[in-house]
Design goal:
alpha/beta, Rossmann fold
C-alpha cells in the first residue's frame, strides 16, 4: 500500500529546545532547535511553514523537517505567524509578522543556541505559502535575509489567484483579486518584485498538484533574466509534501540545496 504523502503533516517530532516570542500575539513566536554534534557555528535556519496562509495549518507540521535540519548541524527556528481566518491574519498582518520575526530571531536565538550560531542574518527555508513568505521577506528586507530555499513556493500570487489555488487562498490573504487590490499584489507578489536580492534556490516537484511547478519555472526564468543569483531544482518523482519529509526520496536534494546556500553565504 503506497504511503500517503500527507502523512508528514501529522507525524510527531521531538519537542523544541525553547520557544521565543517576537511579538505579543500568541502566534508571534518561534520554536528553537539546537544543532546536533559539535560542528562549527552556522547561520540560523528559519523554517517558514506553508498551509496556504490559513489558520488551520501551523508550524507543528514542520517539526520533522526542523528536527532533521538540526540533526544535520543547523541551528533552527520554526517561525509562527498570524494567518487568514484569525484576528490580525491576512493583509497585512501575515506579511508584517514574517518580516518582524525574521528580523528578530537571530538576536532572540543567541541566548539559546550560543556558540553554535554564526552572527548575521538567517537563511530562510519556506514551503508552499511559506516559500512565498520567504521570498517576500528577502525582497522586502534584504538586509535581514542571507538566502532563501523556497520549496514549492507560491511565487506568483496573481497566477495563483487566477488558478484559484486551494479555493481562494490568495484572495483570503490579500482581501480580493488583483483588480480589486492592485497595490497589495504589487507589494506582496514575488513575481512582480524581481529579481530577488539574495542567493535563492527553488526546489519543486513536477508531480505537485497543490502548487504547479509552472509557477516556479516562470518565476525563476524571469528572475534569471533580470540578473538574479537563482536556480531551479526540479524533482521528477516528487509531489508537494515530499519536500518537507525527511523520510522521502526528495530529502537529500533539499538538504543539498540548503548546504549550497550556506556555502554561498560563507563566500
Amino acid at each position: 500500500m503506497p504511503v500517503d504523502p500527507r502523512a508528514v503533516l501529522d507525524r510527531s517530532a521531538p519537542a523544541p529546545d525553547a520557544t521565543v516570542a517576537y511579538g505579543r500575539h500568541p502566534d508571534q513566536v518561534a520554536d528553537l532547535r539546537r544543532p546536533a554534534g559539535n560542528g562549527p557555528p552556522r547561520p540560523l535556519v528559519v523554517v517558514v511553514h506553508g498551509g496556504f496562509w490559513r489558520a488551520e495549518y501551523d508550524r507543528a507540521h514542520t517539526g520533522p523537517l526542523a528536527a532533521a535540519l538540526a540533526g544535520l548541524g543547523h541551528p533552527v527556528a520554526q517561525l509562527e505567524y498570524r494567518r487568514t481566518g484569525q484576528p490580525g491574519g491576512g493583509w497585512p498582518g501575515t506579511l508584517t509578522d514574517v518580516l518582524a520575526g525574521v528580523a528578530a530571531l537571530p538576536g532572540l536565538a543567541r541566548p539559546v543556541l550560543g556558540g553554535r550560531l554564526r552572527p548575521g542574518p538567517p537563511l530562510l527555508v519556506g514551503h508552499s505559502a511559506g516559500g512565498h513568505l520567504a521570498l517576500y521577506a528577502a525582497v522586502s528586507a534584504p538586509d535581514t535575509v542571507a538566502g532563501v530555499l523556497a520549496l514549492a513556493p507560491v511565487a506568483d500570487l496573481a497566477e495563483a489567484y487566477r488558478l484559484d489555488l486551494d479555493s481562494g487562498a490568495v484572495a483570503a490573504l490579500l482581501g480580493g483579486s488583483p483588480a480589486e487590490h492592485p497595490e497589495r499584489y504589487a507589494d506582496a507578489d514575488p513575481a512582480v518584485r524581481i529579481p530577488p536580492p539574495t542567493p535563492t534556490v527553488v526546489v519543486h516537484g513536477t508531480l505537485d498538484r497543490q502548487v504547479p511547478v509552472a509557477l516556479s519555472r516562470s518565476y525563476v526564468a524571469a528572475a534569471r533574466a533580470a540578473g538574479s543569483r537563482i536556480r531551479l531544482v526540479e524533482l521528477s518523482a516528487c509531489e508537494h509534501f515530499g519536500l518537507i519529509d525527511p523520510e522521502s526520496s526528495a530529502w537529500p536534494e533539499v538538504a543539498l540545496a540548503l548546504r549550497s546556500l550556506q556555502v554561498d553565504h560563507c563566500h
